[in-house]
Predict the 3D structure of the following.
Amino acid sequence: MAGSSPEASRTSSQEPGLRLRDLSETDLLARIVPLFRSAPGVLVGPGDDAAVVASGHSVVATTDSMVRGRDWRDDWSSGADVGRKVVAQNLADVAAMGAVPTALLVSFAADPDTEVAWVLDVTGGLAAAAGEAEVAVVGGDLSSAPAGVVVVSVTALGDLQGRSPVLRSGARVGDVVAVCGSLGFSGGGLALYAAGTPVPPSSPAGGVPAANNASPAGAGLGEREERDAAVATLMWAHRTAGRPPRRAGVAAADAGASALIDVSDGLVRDAGRIAAASGVSVALSGQLLREGFAAGPLTLALGEEEAMRQVLSGGEEHSLVGCFPRPAWERLRAAAPAPGEPGWRRIGEVVSRADGEGVLVTVDGQVPSVTGWDHFAG
Amino acid sequence: MAGSSPEASRTSSQEPGLRLRDLSETDLLARIVPLFRSAPGVLVGPGDDAAVVASGHSVVATTDSMVRGRDWRDDWSSGADVGRKVVAQNLADVAAMGAVPTALLVSFAADPDTEVAWVLDVTGGLAAAAGEAEVAVVGGDLSSAPAGVVVVSVTALGDLQGRSPVLRSGARVGDVVAVCGSLGFSGGGLALYAAGTPVPPSSPAGGVPAANNASPAGAGLGEREERDAAVATLMWAHRTAGRPPRRAGVAAADAGASALIDVSDGLVRDAGRIAAASGVSVALSGQLLREGFAAGPLTLALGEEEAMRQVLSGGEEHSLVGCFPRPAWERLRAAAPAPGEPGWRRIGEVVSRADGEGVLVTVDGQVPSVTGWDHFAG
């Protein structure tokens, strides 16, 4: 499988109109399993009762799901987009522990009337994202579901390679707070979709690896083209989670990060989780956030005010937030980022929490009036 | 949490009518996470980006899901039944590799209108089954789902403790084929439910640990009471997966098993998977299956013919099928089963596969006219 491009072939070999109910499990698995390639350390891959993955001394494990109609809409996202996004979500959690991902398991519950071509498109997206991260899909499960229902759950395993896990609870007063990757792109893209914005023709869909940080998406273009490129980048980021940094978590751990988290539910909410777990407050700088993250595509596409709102509250970005004691921060800044990945940008610092006040995150000393994403809430 | 009984308290402390949409994720997790206890080897449990589990040199990983309306019906099964069953399915896959389970992750996608009390009942069943197996729930994920939809996915990790994994592909001609646990109970229970059979008042629901093997379920009772006990045992086995053997996989691996699988889709289909992977045939003895498995509760509840059909084709039993070279079989028979677990019973032997015929499993030399369970099939 190495070197093949699952997404490129996704429409060529499929029988149109073929539904899940038309295939036996064996037939379906025969189409799915070859899309995943193996990786070093996979001792037993798909096909037995369970997979076996080589490990150092400890295993990192996390799980994240996507539900049709809740976590994606078929009129916005392709199957490949969904597959990419659910992998990105899981790999970000592994990265946020300071671990290297080693294996994925995929659990797929779907209406038997689902088109097989769409399932294979999801599979292609999963396989492409897994392949880029050099991680194997080692197992999974297929279940039938009621009419219209599709749920894709991924579990990711990771190897700390002898490192201590970087927890949310390790931030200390005086640490530098920094972000690797973009902020607000996915949330901004969702806002554009929700407003009925058509996807501009220059959309980076289909796997074009846009730089997932705050550099202008369409440098050298005219104003209209630049805005279109920015809009397309944000909408693509919402559909696929873009390309969150994959190696930055390990680099941060090696440099001596005291705490790490990925941005799942918005910067304020996720930085607040570090603050809550560590018994500190996180003081963010509005200027650093505006200059480093809101400027560029976000402001081009959404205007300054909405851009800043998305930077603070946009979810599903899966960039990393880290806290760094000064020597660790100096080490991190001295090291070059991994090829194709953005560097870390400072956004604030860890301060002591005023007793009894319970303020976890401030922006320029004020409590921001934004919140992040909550499941189930009506 | 050690020593508490999550199921016992499941109805006492819940507000009736409380729905998922009425709670924040934080509030819901505050009710769910304390139901799970930790275990040795869990270095980081729920609450961070990912869990960290100590490991020897390799990790076994598997996943299995249950979907409301497909894998269970609310009018038949309680939440606790569902929680127990999805854990049993996963632990059986770990056992079938010859590994000791170390950790579970739970992914839960549910309609926000789902009653919180029911979710906590599922959680109680998960926690109880995990507790009995001395395995920790180390992480999970919550997602909202469309109206009426609930999907519970579990991923199980296991530790081979230096053993080689026991694959499906290791069976050799001359090996003894044996089963540990019951056959056909769950399938028989499903048939009883499907026929509209009322659950007899002596139902072992609520966690009564009926001996999950072919010994009569109601020894010493009158004929009617004996049949009722048998019916109740089968229906309970369908709802909860009963109590499949947990330690027998490791014992089989230690004795030198050449192949192992758990009965998910029916004996003929799952033994056929060993045969297919190993390039052999499995020759089953009708007499050994009748005497060792169809006799007792199955025949009492269903009659001889249907009992034998369920022994051959009943799914979701999660007992273990093993293949054993003669010295391994002698070692296994010389060792006592783990306390509370049944012993292994011989059901046939591994024979060479006639070239070009593709017959994987025979019963008394004939190809049985039963098949197992397939998802998606219309």
